[in-house]
Write a structure and sequence with these properties.
Elements: H1 6-16, H2 23-35, H3 38-54, E1 56-57, E2 64-65, E3 79-86, H4 89-97, E4 103-107, H5 125-134, E5 140-143, H6 149-162, E6 168-171, H7 187-195, E7 198-199
Parallel strand pairs: 3-4, 3-5, 5-6
Antiparallel strand pairs: 1-2, 6-7
This protein binds zinc ion.
Length: about 200
């Protein structure tokens, strides 16, 4: 017999399917939502609907934005010769937070991971290659994927594919420990990783 009514059980399942939310947290959140004042619960639902309705992927860098192209791509002061490739929009936020990097970004929305079924076209790599062939002013691609097996494999894949193009491919320095996520790195570590990037052009 179910411990909760079907509607509550459904809410718990939906919350539990979110990343980083275990069964216990899902239950806690569900009961918190149920005990909220009506207007707070409605505001929560509306904020999800609104964010989803207004947010699109930037047609240039693939980052989430509510104006297309996004503010970074349409900023005339940004250096259009450098593109920093990251796994997620959260990484862009982390890099922007340190106010050091003035180039553009490309958000992959994942990493190349054939074992888990994430192929080249499941992440925004085709869009990156299209972008590079359409924009001759791009001279350097900085691979700022996480220091993980998949992050490194993605960086290597890009460097191999871009070898004939003459575009320089660099990898952020290993100041970041293996397995460390860009988004959780402190600003100094991140700034050093970016400054100390190494050429991995094939
Ligand atoms: Zn953009």
């Amino acid at each position: 017999m179910a411990r909760y009514s079907p509607s509550v059980q459904n809410l718990i399942s939906r919350l539990g399917a979110l990343p980083g939310i275990g069964g216990k947290s899902a239950q806690r959140l569900a009961f918190h939502i149920l005990s909220m004042p009506d207007e707070d619960a409605t505001a929560l639902v509306e904020s999800i609907t609104e964010a989803r309705r207004l947010t699109v992927r930037c047609s240039c860098c693939q980052n989430f934005t509510d104006s297309n192209p996004c503010p970074i791509c349409s900023d005339p002061t940004r250096d259009k010769s450098v593109v920093c490739v990251v796994e997620s929009p959260r990484d862009v936020a982390a890099l922007e937070r340190m106010h050091e990097y003035k180039g553009l970004y490309h958000v992959l929305h994942g990493v190349y991971n054939p074992i888990s079924g994430k192929g080249i076209s499941d992440i925004a790599l085709p869009q990156l290659f299209d972008r590079l062939s359409a924009n001759a002013e791009i001279k350097e691609v900085i691979m700022a994927t996480n220091q993980s097996v998949e992050g490194n494999a993605t960086a290597l894949y890009v460097s191999r594919l871009l070898a004939p193009s003459g575009i320089k491919v660099t990898r952020i320095a290993s100041g970041l420990p293996m397995g460390a996520d860009i988004e959780y790195a402190d600003d100094l570590t991140l700034a050093n990783a970016l400054k100390g990037r190494v050429n991995i052009s094939s």
